[in-house]
């Protein structure tokens, strides 16, 4: 009967095959090396240690068998053998693991019984040592390449952001855990001469230097086009024309916007990129509208401008698809991103972009690059003039803004209810009746607290759709008249303005 250390031909081949299979299964040596060490103890030795470098921490040091951990100095065979003999091991094999790329280490087998290892065992250990050396070398090379790619990627991203009056910008980038190439994800923010902030984010399909080169070109082109322009959609259309001049550029998703820090107004457009998320503390969490097609695949992007006045104590989260597609389930990824955004923004305001990525990838592996840019809007006065796209999803955002207004002006609970309800009806009318077709326009909300009253204007720039009587609708105007002290409608060929007044009552 064969004993450990006295391997037959078939058993030797089986050991090498099993060890090779483990090493080939992953370059994550922290997972594979302990299993190889345990395999050696089960088949051929009482003790095994595989040290990936001259460091002795858990990241590079793996052993199996009995006894306290052995402190190794790579290449010091005498020190290794003395340490093992002091623990009662009589048979010792020390196999150096040379590294061509600066790695290397040592592979040690030991047994209590003298003469435990024969010549065949020694040869098997040497062959296995060559496999271990190659695995360590490949891991070292991958780690170095990954490090270089990560540094190059970060060098292409802004080192800092402009200061934001009443808020802040924070970014985070996480390279794909299974890639060792530079990627095409980017984020950017810069101040324009008129003091607006320009914000861009995008994702070039693929990896490698070509993707990084395209990313740099598009990012710089966006910077150039941003100056002097007011429409983000026009900027994206201009960049699409530029990218179409470059052959083989592939697909580039992008989002571009302007942020007016004084009025808290964000205007943005999307070219096939994931839409931004909005978190309003204690009031709302959802995705803003998106649309458009990626850059570089057609004559037109089809992007349109979306506008939102961001309430105080809110966060706008821009991100690339690596933040939602890590599990290949986009719907579940979007739900988790929204949930994690709420927790990250409200509990980790110092840098919600980093906090969000840590929450998302605490239990998941990011298979693609992931970029995040967070625009934080701190508490502050409500602008007297606010603008929104005339779409249904703006209703809860407006409601949150009105509640912030009531908080700041000590509005009584009854009048808060009257104000939010009446404004909600006015906004619903502008959304439903002001614009025809799919190209919804904008409406403006003006809200002001005076000593004796609160004045409200909801104004659109459209032509109202013909009114159609329905049994379940039509009480909006009646409610506004009941809730407010004065209501007036002024319609012209340029739009409709609904003005309301609520006399103040001490809170």
Concise overview:
The chain is α+β, with helices and mostly antiparallel strands.
Pick out its properties.
single chain, 507 residues, Beta-Lactamase, 5-stranded antiparallel beta sheet
Overview of this structure, please?
- By secondary structure, this protein is of the alpha+beta class.
- It folds into 3 domains: 142 residues, Beta-Lactamase; 222 residues, Phosphatase 2c, domain 1, CATH 3.60.40; 101 residues, 2-Layer Sandwich (Heat Shock Protein 90), CATH 3.30.565.10.
- The protein is built from 11 helices and 19 strands.
- The strands form 4 sheets. A 5-stranded antiparallel sheet has the order 5-14-13-10-11, with helices on both faces.
- Helix 1 packs parallel to helix 4.
- The chain is elongated, with a radius of gyration of 32 Å.
Helix content class: 25-40%
End-to-end Cα distance, whole Å, is 94 Å
Point out poorly predicted stretches.
1-5, 54-60
Oligomer: single chain
CATH fold naming of the largest domain = Phosphatase 2c, domain 1
For this structure, what is the CATH class of the largest domain? Answer: Alpha Beta
- List how many beta strands DSSP finds: 19
**Tally of domains:** 3
**Strand order in space, largest sheet:** 5-14-13-10-11
Shape: elongated
Structure classification: alpha+beta
Largest sheet data: 5 strands, antiparallel
Estimated radius of gyration: 32 Å
In percent, how much strand structure appears in the residues? Answer: 25-35%
**Individual helix count:** 11
CATH superfamily of the largest domain: PPM-type phosphatase domain
| Helix/strand order, N-terminal first | HHEEHEEHEEEHHEEEEEEHHEEHHEEHEE
CATH architecture of the largest domain: 4-Layer Sandwich
Average predicted confidence as pLDDT:
83
